[in-house]
Structure formats: structure tokens, C-alpha cells
Amino acid sequence: MALIVQKYGGSSVADAEKITKVARRIARTKNQGNQVVVVVSAMGDTTDELIELAYRISETPDNRELDVLLSTGEVVSSTLLAMALHHMGYPAISLSGAQAGIRTDSVYNRARILKVESRRVVKELERGNIVIVAGFQGITDEMDVTTLGRGGSDTTAVALAASLGAEVCQIYTDVEGVYDADPRLVPEARPLAEMGYEEMLELASYGANVLHPRAVELGELFNVPILVASSFTEKPGTLIHGGVSMEVREKVRGIAHNLDVAKITVIGVPDCPGIAASIFEPLARAGISVDTIVQNASIEKVTDLTFTVTTSQLSRAMEVVKPIAGSIGARDCVSDATLGTVSIIGTGMQNTPGYAARMFNALSEKGVNIQLITTSEVRITCIITEAKVKDAVRALHHAFEIEIEG
Ligand code: ASP
Ligand code: MG
User: Fold this and answer.
1) Please, what is the average pLDDT of the chain?
2) pLDDT in tens, 135-148
3) Ligand approaching nearest to the C-alpha of 156
4) Is the entire prediction scored with pTM above 0.85?
5) Ligand 1 pocket, 47 CB below 6 A?
6) Distance between CA atoms of 294 and 217, rounded to whole angstroms?
7) Is 238 exposed, middle or buried (0-12, 13-18, 19+ CB in 10 A)?
8) Does residue 136 line the site of ligand 1, with CB under 6 A?
9) pLDDT category, 350, cuts 50, 70, 90?
């Protein structure tokens, strides 16, 4: 008898009929002789609607209250799913995040899971129950409800799978798996059969919204195989795991993109110790997360410093940086909100010459100007103008297609 954790996203449980369909899938897994723990998201757009409601009451809703409010979305879907299973004659019990032992720190709206005390879940499994856990939420030592950040139910599911030693964590969603590029931009894009954690982490962080990056991190840390598949079809989906074969690994596996990119450049910065810290410390304190940072080699003790933030954080970031730029004697501070990124992702690129050149050639053939380039072990990213992102993704998918096909 295997223990399987399944997670169903908001679109899979958007109405009563869909909840009943999901219950049938769960029942099938149970009938195959498995123990089943299910994590659910809130129905459809519930979380967005609750946030909107809160902001209609106040422009600055209290974070603690907001988390309790948002956690109710998942409570609704988990209870309804348990009722659907009861109606079909299956023993099932819903548990809130707190009841399921999801212990977090007390950073409201984006709490991190500290540990999972899974005694209650184990007890209910032993009683023969299908256990339905409300995703996206946890509880602090003070017994205050927290949420894990948008998309956090994936993280709940992988954390539970890790703590219970589940055979696999199945993430059911409205797409057929992880695609080699966004199918809305590239009609020929295809779901990948399997991929490694590292590659998936880069894809998840650089634009593929299919899986919460923290869920991938946890999966890698605890070696939990994660299956991403559609709850609406019987297609096999994408298995993310650590044992991907060498042949498959040494290739460009996917093209990621992100339209939510803005750039700030501090021009004519004096090149001396402490300058970078004086800019990035206040940004961190203001809760602004900075992605790419590039500093030029200095000429005559003066340099330029460029970094990127999300478009929504640009104005706050400029408010923080402008006065600092003045006080450190920088010449100017300028921004551009109309940027995007395209990335090629795959292990083995670092040891194989020519990938970067092929990427830059494909972009230049489409007249795409590259503004910044960053790399990691498994990724090359170009920051370009937003208007060219779609063309760039298509060009790259085409240029590396033979590899992806492998
Ligand atoms: N319901 C939450 C959200 O919409 C969590 C999730 O769906 O994973 O972000
Ligand atoms: Mg999601």
C-alpha cells in the first residue's frame, strides 16, 4: 500500500460539479489500494475575491486579519471535497492547516513552513480516512493563522509528502504538465515527460507559473518526486525528480519568460566600498526583492549599477533609491518599466560551448536587442524590451527545438 499526496488547484475545484469530479479521481486512487492525502486550493478565484473585498474595506488591511480571511477559501474547498467523498460512500475528513500540523514562522502573507507535525494526519490515515488538508495555510507557535504566499498550496502538498514519506506528490492543475515554453506564446510547445529539480526550479522562478518555486525547493531537499498533470485529462503529465538520465539532462529543456520586469540604473556611482550595501540594504528593509544585479567594471573610479525588480515594486524602489543616489554622489537614477526576460534552461549548458552564442544569434535574427545578460549553472537569461518577448520566445523555441525533442 502506497501513500500518495495529491494537490488540486483552484481551477480543478472551481464549482460543485468539478469538486465531485475531483472526488471521483481521489476515490479511484483510494480504490487502487493507496492511502491518500489531498491538499486543495480555494475554489476558482476565491483568494483574489477575498483580497479585493479586504481592500474595499481598507487600503491597508491588517496582515494578521488578512491571513485569517484568506485561509477561509481553502477551508471551504476542503470541507466540500470531504462531503463529496462522503456522498460517494468514502471515509474522509477535512483538516485545516493548523489541524494538519503545518507549523510556520509568523511572517503573515508569506510565512515559511518550519515543520510539519503530522501525527493527526497519520492517525486519520490509520483510521482508513482520506485526509483532505486545506492548502496555503499554517499556524504559528502563538496559534495565529498564517498563509504561505500566493500559490502556496503546492508548498503545503510537497511539505506534507516529505514529512509523511509519500511515494509521490501529484500536483493536479488545468494544464497537461510543464511545457518546454508557454503554449500561449508558442503553439508547438509540448509538455515534458520528466525533468530535474534544478531545471524546474529555474523554470518556476523564471516564468512558468505551473508550480510554486518553494515547492520545487522542498521537493529537491527531501527528494520527493513531483508529478504535474491535468485534473481534466488522463495525460501522463511531467515528473520532476532527481534521477533524470544523463542523456536527457545534457540539453536545453525549456524556454522561460517573464513580462513583469523593471530596471533601475544608478548612473555615475563612485566606485568605493559600501556603496552597494548603502543601496540594497534600504531596499531589503522596504521589502523590495531585487532580482538581477549588474555592476560595470569602473572607469576612472566611477561605475553604473543596474538591477531589476518587479514592475509593481518599481515606484516604491525608486522612492527608496533616488534619495540614496543623491546622497552618495551618483550622477543620475533612471528606470524602465517596459522590460521582460527570456531564458533557456537545461543542465549541461555550462560545460558545452556554443549555447550562449546560439541564443544570441537567434535573438539577433529577430532584431531583438539584448540589454542585460545573466547566467546560472543551468540557465542563460536575456533582459529585453517587453514588446519583443513573444518573438524572442518563439525564436528560441525554434532554435533549440531539436534538442528539446530528444
Ligand atoms: N489560494 C491560494 C492562491 O490563490 C493558494 C493556492 O492556490 O495555491 O494563491
Ligand atoms: Mg498554483
Assistant:
1) 93
2) 999 999 999 999 99
3) 1
4) yes
5) yes
6) 25
7) buried
8) yes
9) confident
